[in-house]
Amino acid sequence: MSDTTTLTRDAAPRTALDPVTFEVLKNAFATSVDLMSEQILRTCYSFVIYSRDFSSALCDASGNTVMQGSGDIAVHVGTLHFQAKAVIEQFGDDINPGDVFAINDPYRGGTHFNDVSFVRPIFSQGRIIAFAQNKGHWADIGGKVPGSFDVSASEHFGEGLRITPVRVWSKGVFLHDVAQLLVANTRAPEQALGDLHAQSEATAVCEREVLRLVDRYGTETVELAMQETQDYVERTVRRRLAELPQGTWETVDYLDLDPGKSEGLVPIKIRMTLDGAGIHYNLEGSADVVDTFLNSGYGTTFSAIYAGTKTFFPDVPLNSGFYAAVTADIGPEGTVVNAGWPYAVTGFCSGPYEKLMNGIFEIWSQLMPERAMACAFNLEYLLVGGRDARSESTPYFMWYDWMAGGWGGRSSKDGSSATAPVFGVGLAVQACEGQERLTPVLTTMHSIGTDSGGPGRFRGGCGVEKGGTLTDADASVMSYCCDRARSITWGIEGGLPSIPHGVWLNRGTENERFLGSIFSSVPVQPGDTFFRPSAGGGGFGDPLERTPEEVLEDVIDGYVSLGRAAADYGVVITPIDPELDRYEIDREATAAERARIREHRAAWLETDPAEVAAKYRAGEIDLLDVIRRHGVILDWGTGELFEETTRQHREQMVRRSATHWS
After folding, report:
1. What are 545-572's pLDDT values in tens digits?
2. Structural contact between residues 360 and 353, judged by C-beta atoms closer than 8 angstroms
3. How far apart are the C-alpha atoms of 272 and 282, rounded to whole Å?
4. What is the 3-state secondary structure (H, E, C) of 4-45?
5. Last residue within a domain, chosen from 506, 541, 576
6. Euclidean distance between the first and the last CA atom of the chain, given in angstroms as a whole number
7. pLDDT at residue 629 greater than cutoff 70
8. Of 368, 249, 349, 251, nearest in space to 311 by CA
9. Domain limits at 437?
10. What are the residue boundaries of the Hydantoinase B/oxoprolinase domain, all occurrences included (predicted)?
């Protein structure tokens, strides 16, 4: 894959179809893809896929995307056409009616090994006119740990089964041996086989819909509509770009650390240029690959670029016409944003992916201030796997959980609370009842996290706190894929950060352990409890400009505590009868506290970090004072100071927050 990718397509006549036929077919293509989604939702075996970790697409004969679904998750945006093209490249003229191909290869434009795609060619008049594709996240794809998320992996060989393009149906004949080879490499082969059939049948639904359109409008008209649908999107995007200021913008976001090096944040640099010819991104200067599985392959890096940009064009359909307006130089192989074979990439989703998206949000917030948004919480996966002792056969189980969290405060309103990650907006929160039926894990709490939203004139959305207990299980281990325990979710335009991610084991007991935000294969026993918060979004604007009445409403709603109302917003509130939500704003004390914060907050950011760490360990200040007031980053379990990480965090906090304070 070249370092710079530009999607090129043959130009179609702009007005070859009449407007009515064009609109009917354009929307019919969208319906054909959404019907795929409805099919997989009703027939899948995996609880993960049922929770909407899947996407679908209709591609033209060259593999270019004609339409993606209305409920697809962002991470699959911009990768499905790479995989269709990989099938074409692999099999060339040896593609026949009734064939179905499987692929999950992240080095051929895929996401990670768990995301398995099935690609079906659609024939008319003896030739390929399109491809239907469905991608779903299999709960396990083999590898060292249950769920296939191995933090210790530096190369892909321990992460799971790599599926280069392979034929699973040949001219309509199911190849049992090939399918068995694939599913036998998972810890839940029956579940994987069920998903394999469900995903294949979903592509058949799309094929039937496209051929129904062919019967009504003719092959040539349908093909022309596919081309014009892409051209329409490209023209629309380019027209809007021409109306925007031209120039170059830059930013940087970070991973928490590289386990193979000393402490310090890992930079992901983004430069974007608008020059009248489209959108051009450059990721030069991003760090080398890290010694864990948080690296990104080229497909997922392009996906993050496309998805981040598409967020600011919400009404434009998504297809290869959009991609044609965007170019990106992601640099040579061997970096955290272009890992290449054989570097481990399964954790890209919690690594570079959302850092790229949030960095792109920050850049576009300057171009479209009416749509501006601070940083959103980081995607996280907690996996507990082992043997289910509730059954005599003790089958493997995978408790595979992700949480909702908060999005950043916006230019005119607070961020969304307890919502899906930007990585996958369509992801559903998994039902606790379903998880408890399928696995020996009991959910003990699941609630909004007070003080988790980054303070700002417009508050970041709140995150969620979730706890659980392992019940009847044998030989079980826990793994966690996340980030932003150190590169904490940030605010903009004066807004403050959120809270750090991380998992606590047996919190509040003598066996309490803070496991951090990235680990794998931690042994757990029946009766062990675990707790984790998801971060809220970063704040937008100076928190001292939030009205006292809005802060009071946050206190009443449980979004902000009385202590943080004073510490972060300078609003002093007296409780009268909390059970009846009766509080009173102390206007005089609020004015005095806000004046005090304004006078001292710049100096607070320059306090000796070692002094701050010592006060935290002594219990004199709390975690949020350390982060929001002093800009210091510690090991949240031991209180150890991270000097280089603190320097980098403060530098960014000054840029995004302090320079905007009055």
Report:
1. 999 999 999 999 999 999 999 999 999 9
2. no
3. 6
4. EECCCCCCCCCCCCCHHHHHHHHHHHHHHHHHHHHHHHHHCC
5. 541
6. 48
7. yes
8. 368
9. 377-541
10. 18-543
